[in-house]
């Protein structure tokens, strides 16, 4: 592991989308590429942290100098994250599906003669960020969430900040014109107990670098 301000710090990062199967060949997913989460994992590793990256299905190569665990569903991501505890810091950048398909089929669904589409029933997925935020004695010292919003960015992000119980939340605009999903740039606000910081539009690598240094400053001050 590299020397650096995060030497001796264990970090968990979630990244990418989750896929919720409808049947063996179809799924419900989302547009996350994993670029932001992977960049955060890489930035933390560069500062010397011992990083575990839990990623949903992405097209990116595994970043170097960390443990990378590949998962598909939100439930797998949660189980894997809980298995990584204790850690000092958790950053939940994954775009986790809020719902899973409760009537997923073991076999490929067939078109029936009536031409009616089959019903897809949804059930709520567990919330990984909220679960990590309430873990009692195994709670990471710092839990960082993201809020992906297409409108009323700060209002919706503040509501999530309170509801999920994390320490910081990175609010990002993911409206179609922003190009955030899959793109190389991000425009974020960092919400902490101290208030909201507006960051300029910068590359996802720079968001990651800035966040990693902030994490280092915070954890250094509170052993
Ligand atoms: O992957 P990229 O293409 O680079 O795009 C980056 C990104 C836009 C996906 C990323 O920056 C981002 O915003 N990730 C969070 C996406 C998301 O699911 O946001 P949300 O507002 O729906 O969820 C809020 C927080 O709760 C997130 O930290 C999320 O990881 C977490 N969550 C949500 C649902 C759930 N069941 N479990 C969770 O842990």
Corresponding CATH superfamily: CoaB-like
Radius of gyration: 18 Å
CATH fold topology: Rossmann fold
Distance linking N and C termini: 20 Å
Can you count the beta strands? 14
Arithmetic mean of pLDDT: 95
CATH-level-2 architecture: 3-Layer(aba) Sandwich
The count of domains is: 1
Q: Which structural class do the helices and strands define?
A: alpha/beta
Name the shape in a single word.
Answer: globular
Number of helices: 5
Bound small molecules, deduplicated: ligand PMT
Largest sheet: 8 strands, mixed
Spatial order of strands in the largest sheet: 5-4-1-6-9-10-12-13
* Weakly predicted, low-confidence segments: none
Give the fraction of residues assigned to helices. Answer: 25-40%
What does this structure look like?
Strands 5-4-1-6-9-10-12-13 form an 8-stranded mixed beta sheet, sandwiched between helices. The chain has a two-stranded antiparallel sheet with strand order 2-3. A two-stranded antiparallel sheet has the order 7-8. 26% of the residues lie in helices and 27% in strands. The protein has a single domain, classed as CoaB-like (Rossmann fold). With 223 residues, the protein is of the alpha/beta class. Ligand PMT binds next to helix 1, helix 3, strand 9 and helix 4. Its EC number is 4.1.1.36, 6.3.2.5.
List the helices and strands and how they pair.
Blueprint: E1 10-15, E2 20-23, E3 26-28, H1 35-46, E4 50-55, E5 67-70, H2 74-84, E6 89-92, E7 99-101, E8 122-124, H3 128-133, E9 142-149, H4 153-164, E10 168-173, E11 185-186, E12 188-192, E13 195-198, E14 202-203, H5 204-221
Parallel strand pairs: 1-4, 1-6, 4-5, 6-9, 9-10
Antiparallel strand pairs: 2-3, 7-8, 10-12, 11-14, 12-13
Helix pairs in contact: 1-5
The structure holds ligand PMT.
Protein name: Coenzyme A biosynthesis bifunctional protein CoaBC
Pathway: Cofactor biosynthesis; coenzyme A biosynthesis; CoA from (R)-pantothenate: step 3/5; Cofactor biosynthesis; coenzyme A biosynthesis; CoA from (R)-pantothenate: step 2/5
Binding site for CTP: 98, 108, 126-129, 146, 160, 164
